[in-house]
Batch of 4 targets.
Target 1
Amino acid sequence: MNGIIKAIKERRSIRKFKTQIPRKEDLMQIIEAGLYAANGRGKQAAIVLAITNKQMREKLVKANCKIGGWPDGFDPFYGAPVILVVLGDKTCHTQLYDGSLMMGNMMLAAHSLGLGSIWIQRSKEEFEQDEWKILLAGLGVQCEWEGIGHCAVGYTEGDVPAPAPRKDNRVFWIE
């Protein structure tokens, strides 16, 4: 079986991670895979905010919990030590699609490197808040950005879940 198709069939969302941070070289490969995602009109209008700093990760956890309505102490990122936040340029009408393809590429790349990942929502709401806009400005990130998703990445703790059976009647041919 083709390696890419095999990775697509085997990749699963991971909900328990080890605390060890993956090698920076692996994280850079994951991010590069995201940067090579297909994108509307070749505008490359999605970016990645790579968070490996524990204090910044905890700020993100608290913001995500507040939006999600979870109590203090809950980790919506399931313990993943790295959070790759994908943001789309609000002036580009394909930002949601471009960022989604970036997320998919990064999750497949993580799997191919023996790492687990999961897509976590609520980045849109986070990056509408001034605190996170100020963070981006401090990094020199220009324009208005919309959060597309968090790609939580790390080493899987425990077994990888088995795939759910695929539903029937989801393909309709017109020949």
Target 2
Amino acid sequence: MKHVGIKIALFLNYFVFAFLLNSVGTVILQVQRSMEISKASASILEGFKDIPIAIASFILASFLPKIGLKKSMLLGLALVAICCFITPYTNQFWYFKFLFLMIGISFALIKVSVFATIGLITNSQKEHGSFMGIIEGVFMGGVLLGNIIFSLFIDDNNPKSTNWLSMYWLMGGLSLLAFLVLYFSILDETEARIKQREFKEDFKEMMLLIIKPLTVVFVLSIFLYVLTEQSFQTWFPTFYTDIINAPASMAIQAGAILGGAFMIGRFLGGFILKKIKWIYLLTTCIISAGIIILLVLPLANNMDNQGVISWTQAPLVVYMMPAIGLFLAPIYPTINSTILSSLPKHMHSSMSGLIVVFSALGGTTGSIITGNVFQRYDGFTAFYLSLIPLAGILISIWILYNLTRSRQIN
């Protein structure tokens, strides 16, 4: 297989950051339990993760190819490894803000570089879309395993226990492994570099890119999608503990099932895209996700809770809720691949920067809105509100489809 070394390195990078980024839902639940932090206050951790991603991506995207895509990824992995090894020695809310800030900056380096690298190691739109779907599927595999493993460190009977912090030793070790695999991999970055151009010219190119009609619609789609996805992923454990009356470890495992549904959905989406047009797949997925919300939340609301539940005695609705991930999953990699594969390879870094910026802003917005609605009203209201951005995504992808057909990006 061509580029096998660098592909394995990219998979490991995404797998590591799946653990780290999506641990925010577990941390939000744990700081509520062990530090008595309110939901609204805990939701700010998403901002400490996503805002640095947005700022760093905006600043770095246009000249990362000049620094070196491989060097940027190595720096990101080194930073998170150091922070993870420090985490078990701390148990303060302020440190988790710092931890997610560093994870955010590092992920900006990783994601922009990974997206730009995909363009270097693929040779067609189909190959690009397929690899994008696979790597996003690997990411969701990391979410799945991360939640399962994290749940093993949770002490349901002692909310004040710090055993769960030991998980970060494993995360630090995985970061080092990813660093070593990438270090010894070969990547030809020639096509990503534009010779004899200054930073201000590259930055101007990114600014001109964002005002194009196709790009505006695209980043709106990305923003709304991540807003919806992160609302579910971040607050799923809290929903299960507060609304369904599940123990903390089971709630985190429910997050793992949601991650598994996302993983399966992205792998299936990559396969189905070989058979039908992307717009038909995404339309079906969005409508199906909306139907699941309308069906499942009333069932959850009508549950007759008589004490703490477990997997063996849980009603069907407990297993049905994560199915929404199956249908949300194909949306993100498909629209990303659609836009990136339509651009010259030297512009992939700039567009990747825009993707990461608006993904981060969407994630923060979704988490904070959901956290505040969760606290002021309830989890049902918070999750019902996700129908609004879903409708917005449906409208925006059809506009995007019509614009890509007329190729207004050029």
Target 3
Amino acid sequence: MTQTAAPQRCPGCGSLLAAGDGPVHAYMLSTPACWQAFGALLAREYADPGLMEVHRLTVDSWAVQHPGDGSRRAIQSVGMHLCRLKLQLEHGFTGRRANDAMLQLGRLKSELPALPARASYRMTVADMNPTSGPDAHAAAVRRWARSTWEDWADQHAFVAEYLARSGLGPFSSTVP
């Protein structure tokens, strides 16, 4: 009889996924299974050009749920990806336009402070299905991104202020 290893909780997003060995991100803390699940989503999106519309939402959601090792680049990653989520979800930026804005945001990234990590998330990569059809995949990514953005609600005003200082505002956390 073969024994199955107990699931392992991801230190970033809290997902409970199969335990195992393997690669992980260089500075965003995760389990190998969480990193692999994220990679499967990315592969799905790269395989279907129609899914590139939601690709940056996938990247941003996973990134802010894995705040990392406390290094300067990990701190900057969370702040920058939160900004890109806001631009897409609250201001209607396309992924491409939000990515271009991220380049402008980079001028001030050294000013980003460490933001408090979340204790948990309502939706994580474990809730995603990389084999779903394109429409279902895109809808699930949008739900995940919206849920993740809402999980960071206490930082919305900070993100709006940072965007305004970078020249991409004036955005208010109350703007629909």
Target 4
Amino acid sequence: MANEPRSNNKDFKKNDQQAEGDGFQDRVVHIARVAKVVKGGRRFSFSALVCVGDGKGRVGFGLGKAGEVPDAIKKGADQAKKNLLKVFISPEGTIPFDVTGKFGAAKVIMFPAKKGTGTIAGGAVRIICELAGIQDIVCKVHGTKNYHSVVRATVNGLNQLVSPDDYAAARGKTLAEVLQVRGAKKKKASVKTGDKK
């Protein structure tokens, strides 16, 4: 009997990723203890920033506040499920083109990557990309490293993603004209300099 609470606490500490019955997983990005100053002193509570995703292109985030940590996480997860975003992921398991997400002083630059690269990102960006189901991506955070700002900037960037077909149709071009080929500009420049010689 004495060992049961200890095992429960151990499970809670490992609550990095938790599978839900509806196919969603939730991950805690950040937990903060916040204080409200009242006449008699301070009242302490906890705020939890939680991200939720199904690994198939749907992801969301939410902020929960409560007197206890588990309650704050549950509120955050419920809030995240109400604000789900559909992310376009290419068949190769990466994003279709370079994108920059911004929120406040945070700027998150995301690049598509070759198969087998994995998720090269830090902190909150990695959590969101993994929950969304993006397998290969390279990200860099500029500006503030505030968890809330980084999460919102990442979601802002993922929200800009569209399929190449839709993007080409919106610009009135063919798919071949809008597809990015890495290093194409460098090759053209080297060819031009070679012609001059």
